[in-house]
Amino acid sequence: MDQPTQRNSRRKEARPGEILDAALAIFGEKGYAAASIEDIAKRAGVTKGTPYLYFKNKEDLFKALIIASISPTVDGLTEYLKEAQSLPVALQLQGTLHFWKTNVLDTSRSIILKLMMAEASNFPEVARFYQSEVIEKITDQLAALITLGIERGEFRPINVESITHALLAPMIYAVLQKHCFQCHQHPAPEDWLPDSVQVLIRGLLIQPTINTNLPPQHC
Amino acid sequence: MDQPTQRNSRRKEARPGEILDAALAIFGEKGYAAASIEDIAKRAGVTKGTPYLYFKNKEDLFKALIIASISPTVDGLTEYLKEAQSLPVALQLQGTLHFWKTNVLDTSRSIILKLMMAEASNFPEVARFYQSEVIEKITDQLAALITLGIERGEFRPINVESITHALLAPMIYAVLQKHCFQCHQHPAPEDWLPDSVQVLIRGLLIQPTINTNLPPQHC
Amino acid sequence: MDQPTQRNSRRKEARPGEILDAALAIFGEKGYAAASIEDIAKRAGVTKGTPYLYFKNKEDLFKALIIASISPTVDGLTEYLKEAQSLPVALQLQGTLHFWKTNVLDTSRSIILKLMMAEASNFPEVARFYQSEVIEKITDQLAALITLGIERGEFRPINVESITHALLAPMIYAVLQKHCFQCHQHPAPEDWLPDSVQVLIRGLLIQPTINTNLPPQHC
Amino acid sequence: MDQPTQRNSRRKEARPGEILDAALAIFGEKGYAAASIEDIAKRAGVTKGTPYLYFKNKEDLFKALIIASISPTVDGLTEYLKEAQSLPVALQLQGTLHFWKTNVLDTSRSIILKLMMAEASNFPEVARFYQSEVIEKITDQLAALITLGIERGEFRPINVESITHALLAPMIYAVLQKHCFQCHQHPAPEDWLPDSVQVLIRGLLIQPTINTNLPPQHC
DNA sequence: AATGAATGAGCCTTCATTCAT
DNA sequence: GATGAATGAAGGCTCATTCAT
Question: What sequence ranges are listed for the domain HTH tetR-type (chains A, B, C, D) (predicted)?
Answer without folding.
Answer: 13-73
